[in-house]
């Protein structure tokens, strides 16, 4: 609109200037009547030129206002997008931090039964591993059924394109990828636990497609804890290595040989605290495990705790 109005104004201005020059050059040779006619034409031309010029000015001002509003809108959009991006990055950082925390504790919380140097007796370790293997068997069976169902659905989509669209096909492929990765993780974990069970039972280790993808390591925290536990296995642990005392608030009947029998009111020395809710300590010269929910920890005297604890 601005360009059209500008073109119109330029044309009218040229005509007005041409008429003005014609009147100036011929007013001496014309009669009063002709002169008046030319002046009337010149006046009308000036009015038209002024009106178009005013319209052109108003259009320019409106365009300027629209441009300012557009720039402010872009600025606001930029700030909103910047804030959303900031929130997205913060959310991703939070997720990565949680994932890192989870992975850092993953090896500590899930490998106790597999550790040949742990304080668990052989039978307890076997039973614990078998329970986890059974749970993995159930999960693997379910994951395989899910994979088969998704594969059948994809086959139906491929054979009958009218049943689906591109978006549905992509979502189904994504579900298949996720389920396949989940199945791989379950099978790898199952194989890892099966190796530990075979080692306990004296059977040869089997070969699996994930054999080269599994490695074991020990972090410093676990080595330190194992060292403390190993020292605590002696018949008379050193008094300096206990980390506290507790009092039994309930009776407890052991189910395994490495567990202590508790009577309400018994006083125990605490040597280590397991992450699974079981503690290791001493009662009447005998060491073993006991559930932390059956005891009440007593205030620790500074001289009782050793420097390493």
Automatic annotation (TrEMBL):
<dbReference type="GO" id="GO:0007165">
    <property type="term" value="P:signal transduction"/>
</dbReference>
<feature type="domain" description="SH3">
    <location>
        <begin position="241"/>
        <end position="300"/>
    </location>
</feature>
<keyword id="KW-0175">Coiled coil</keyword>
<dbReference type="InterPro" id="IPR035656">
    <property type="entry name" value="Nostrin_SH3"/>
</dbReference>
<dbReference type="InterPro" id="IPR011072">
    <property type="entry name" value="HR1_rho-bd"/>
</dbReference>
<dbReference type="Pfam" id="PF14604">
    <property type="entry name" value="SH3_9"/>
</dbReference>
<protein>
    <recommendedName>
        <fullName>Osteoclast-stimulating factor 1</fullName>
    </recommendedName>
</protein>
<keyword id="KW-0728">SH3 domain</keyword>
<dbReference type="Pfam" id="PF25610">
    <property type="entry name" value="HR1_TOCA"/>
</dbReference>
<dbReference type="InterPro" id="IPR057870">
    <property type="entry name" value="HR1_TOCA"/>
</dbReference>
<feature type="domain" description="REM-1">
    <location>
        <begin position="117"/>
        <end position="199"/>
    </location>
</feature>
<feature type="coiled-coil region">
    <location>
        <begin position="67"/>
        <end position="94"/>
    </location>
</feature>
<dbReference type="InterPro" id="IPR027267">
    <property type="entry name" value="AH/BAR_dom_sf"/>
</dbReference>
<comment type="function">
    <text>Induces bone resorption, acting probably through a signaling cascade which results in the secretion of factor(s) enhancing osteoclast formation and activity.</text>
</comment>
<dbReference type="InterPro" id="IPR036274">
    <property type="entry name" value="HR1_rpt_sf"/>
</dbReference>
<keyword id="KW-0040">ANK repeat</keyword>
<dbReference type="InterPro" id="IPR001452">
    <property type="entry name" value="SH3_domain"/>
</dbReference>
<dbReference type="InterPro" id="IPR036028">
    <property type="entry name" value="SH3-like_dom_sf"/>
</dbReference>
<feature type="coiled-coil region">
    <location>
        <begin position="126"/>
        <end position="189"/>
    </location>
</feature>
<dbReference type="InterPro" id="IPR050384">
    <property type="entry name" value="Endophilin_SH3RF"/>
</dbReference>
């Amino acid at each position: 609109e601005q360009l059209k109005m500008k073109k119109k104004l330029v044309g009218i201005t040229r005509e007005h200037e041409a008429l003005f020059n014609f009147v100036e050059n011929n007013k001496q040779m014309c009669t009063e009547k002709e002169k008046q006619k030319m002046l009337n034409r010149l006046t009308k031309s000036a009015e038209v030129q002024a009106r178009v010029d005013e319209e052109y000015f108003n259009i320019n001002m409106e365009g300027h206002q629209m441009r300012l509003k557009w720039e402010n809108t872009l600025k606001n959009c930029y700030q909103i997008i910047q804030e959303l991006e900031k929130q997205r990055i913060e959310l991703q950082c939070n997720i990565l931090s949680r994932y890192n925390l989870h992975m850092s504790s993953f090896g500590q919380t899930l490998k106790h039964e597999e550790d040949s140097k742990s304080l668990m007796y052989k039978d307890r370790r076997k039973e614990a591993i078998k329970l986890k293997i059974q749970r993995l068997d159930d999960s693997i069976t379910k994951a395989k059924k899910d994979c088969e169902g998704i594969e059948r659905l994809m086959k139906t989509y491929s054979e009958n394109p009218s049943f689906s669209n591109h978006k549905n096909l992509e979502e189904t492929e994504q579900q298949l990828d996720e389920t396949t990765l989940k199945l791989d993780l379950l099978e790898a974990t199952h194989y890892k636990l099966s190796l530990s069970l075979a080692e306990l039972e004296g059977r040869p280790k089997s070969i699996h497609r994930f054999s080269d993808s599994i490695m074991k390591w020990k972090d410093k925290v676990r080595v330190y804890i194992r060292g403390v536990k190993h020292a605590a296995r002696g018949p008379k642990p050193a008094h300096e290595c206990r980390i506290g005392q507790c009092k039994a608030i309930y009776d407890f009947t052991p189910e395994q040989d490495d567990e202590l029998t508790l009577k309400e009111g018994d006083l125990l020395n605490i040597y280590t605290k397991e992450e699974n809710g079981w503690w290791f300590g001493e009662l009447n010269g005998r060491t073993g495990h006991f559930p932390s929910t059956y005891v009440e920890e007593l205030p620790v005297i500074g001289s009782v705790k050793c420097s390493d604890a």
